[in-house]
Amino acid sequence: MLRRALALVFVAVCAVVIGPQASDAAAPACPRPAPAVAVQRATVVFTGVVTTSAASGTSFVQTVQVDRIYKGQVTTANVRVRTTGGTCGLGKLTAGERYVVMATPDGDSWLAGPRSGTAAASDALLARVQALLGPGTAPAPTPTPTQVSYEQVGATHPRPFLRMAAPGFALVIVGFLGLVVSRRWRRSAAERA
Q1: Long-range contacts of residues 22-29, Cβ cutoff 8 Å, at least 24 apart
Q2: 54/155 Cα distance (integer angstroms)
Q3: How far, in Å, CA of 15 to CA of 147, rounded?
Q4: Cα(33)–Cα(132) distance, rounded to whole angstroms?
Q5: Which of 131, 109, 133, 103 is nearest to 52 (CA)?
Q6: Please, what is the Cα angle at 9 between 7 and 13, to 5 degrees?
Q7: How big is the CA angle at 169 (ends 168 and 175), to the nearest 5 degrees?
Q8: Under DSSP, is residue 42 helix (H, G, I), strand (E, B) or coil?
Q9: What is the pTM of this model?
Q10: Under a CB-based contact definition with an 8 Å cutoff, are residues 118 and 101 in contact?
Q11: 154 φ/ψ angles, rounded to the nearest 5 degrees
Q12: How far apart (Å, rounded) are the C-alpha atoms in residues 10 and 154?
């Protein structure tokens, strides 16, 4: 009986001493938010394939070809997504891999921060996002630039400047003569009176 009591005390002491350390080791150093929380925080939620990735100081800038938009407005099919490095940052996203991006505006790009919820597009994550936000929509196609053609308007041989300006000069001269005649008429009318 004494042995059992001592064994129970030993187990209890071990649980008290070792238990918190074991649970600290099991807990992730950088907890990720649940999809419901991440979706609510994000300005945009979309899926896409990373086409390019480059380092920019302590962060990384990726070009993502968007294939489905679940929340927010994405105006082009190719967007820039910035991620951060460090212990809890997402780091450099893998080119050619599809991601669920949950991001906020960051100048001319989108920021997928450490606790944004951005992750590789697994079936489970896609199912959860679609359950929260619906089936999503395809991005608007990027408009193709239209060919501009120029057509010459008017004659191939334009008229000389003096020929074009002659009617205007004639009107100025007629107006000046009218002014001179009206002044003389006023003077003569004033002299008669």
Answers
A1: 29/87, 29/88
A2: 55
A3: 76
A4: 15
A5: 109
A6: 115
A7: 90
A8: coil
A9: 0.59
A10: yes
A11: 100, -175
A12: 104
Between CA 174 and CA 154 the distance in angstroms is 30
Query: How confident is the prediction along the chain (193 residues), in pLDDT tens digits per residue?
Result: 667 666 666 666 666 656 555 444 444 577 888 889 999 999 999 999 999 999 888 899 999 999 999 999 988 889 999 998 888 888 899 999 999 999 999 888 999 988 899 999 999 999 999 999 999 998 887 667 778 887 777 666 777 877 888 888 889 898 888 888 888 888 888 888 7
Residue type present at position 149: S
CA 158 to chain centre: 50
Q: Which amino acid is at 56?
A: S
The residues with which 52 forms a beta bridge, in sequence order, are 63
